Predict the structure of MBL fold metallo-hydrolase.
Amino acid sequence: MRADVHHVADGTYLVHGSNTNWVILTEGDAVTLVDTGYPGDREQLLASLARVGSSPEAVAAVLITHAHNDHLGSAEYLRERYGTPVYLHEAEVPHARREFLHQVSLGTVLRNGWRPGVLPWAVHALRSGGTMHNPVTAPEPFPAAGALDLPGRPVPVHTPGHTDGHCAYHLPGTGVLVSGDALVSGHPTSRVEGPQLLPDMFHHERPRAVASLDVLAELEGELLLPGHGPVHRGSLEDAAHRARERAL
């Protein structure tokens, strides 16, 4: 399948995988990769790097928003094969090692199977490796506070709720927010378009996920690159407030 790559800002690319997005940040010959899609998205992931004139060898680091398989998919592959460091919030490191799993259960999915889009999404997730055992064996916490010394100079923003260690990544220089699953613009199980939280069943602690929208509302920028859904252009503050209103 051909990678769906969108050049959205200087050195910044949003890639639509199969139901999940990842982001490529370029600087000269080096690349920062934010999330990696499902395990089954690996061919698309590698193709997307080639589309922007890069390669897996050029990836300086993989930043993970949170350790669900649809975002963690090829992180261990890149770490093991190319020696690429995989960074997460310190609270998410044991999650990536699969010391525990904060993820919607099969039973909860089945109980919500009557909702539009849930069963087709679940079938796709199963086929793409959404439930496989896929740990990162040596994930690392961020090496320093504040902006990371990586292409794009992303600033981790702790946004717990979806998982305990969920992190968005803010790029103040370009006004970009890579929001992961803390703030999305669509999902196969949602009938709503535009800024929103994922449906309730996906959050480990929904009240904290709602509260994290206030953190995102404090960030300056005009470009939202979500973990699910299309790019959203407009004030990050307004996007976070719209999602909060829809969640209440």
